[in-house]
Amino acid sequence: MAVKIRLLRMGKIRNPQYRIVVADSRTKRDGRAIEFVGVYQPKEDPSVIEVKSERVQYWLSVGAQPSEAVQRLLELTGDWQKFKGLPAPPPLKVAPERADRKAAYEAEAKAAAGVAETPAPAKKAAKAQAPAAEAEAPKAEEQTGAESGEQA
C-alpha cells in the first residue's frame, strides 16, 4: 500500500483549516485517514503549524511520502531536516499571548465608573488597620475623659 502524508481540508468557506494526515494514496483528499499527525491553520497570524514530530519521523522512516505542501510545512518545523540529517531551520514565529479580556473589561468598567483602582492586598491591609485604629480611638477618649474628670 502506498502511504502519503498530506493535508485534509476542514473549516469554513474562505477559512481553511487543515489536518496533516497519513493516508492511503488511493483515498479521497478528505477521505479516511490512517492517523492524524498535525494541524495547519494558514489564516492565523502567524500561521499555526503543529506537528507530532515523533509520529511524522516514524511514518517517514517506514516510507510514507509527503505531498509538496506537507513537505514545505515539515521544512518549516524542522522535521524534514531531522529526517534528512540536515541542519535545523530558524525557529518559527510564535503568536504573542492574548490579553485577558475579562481583566481588560473590568479595568475599563472601573475607569468608566470613576472608581479609583487599588490593588487587592492594599484593600485588605487598609481594612485590617481601620478596626485597629477605631479600637484605639475610644481608648484614647476614655483616657482623656478620665484625665479631665480627675482635674475637675
TrEMBL record:
Q: Does the keyword Repeat apply?
A: no
Q: Which UniProt keywords apply?
A: Ribonucleoprotein, Ribosomal protein
Q: Name one GO biological process term.
A: translation
Q: Does the keyword Ribonucleoprotein apply?
A: yes
Comp. bias intervals (Low complexity) = 110-135
Pfam families xref list: Ribosomal_S16
What are the protein's GO molecular function terms?
structural constituent of ribosome
Q: Where is the composition biased (Basic and acidic residues)?
A: 95-109
Taxonomic superkingdom: Bacteria
Q: Which GO terms of the cellular component aspect does the record hold? A: cytoplasm; small ribosomal subunit
User: Residues annotated as region Disordered?
Assistant: 85-152
Instruction: Supply the name of the protein.
Output: Small ribosomal subunit protein bS16
Phylogenetic lineage: Bacteria, Bacillati, Actinomycetota, Actinomycetes, Micromonosporales
- Gene name for this UniProt entry: rpsP
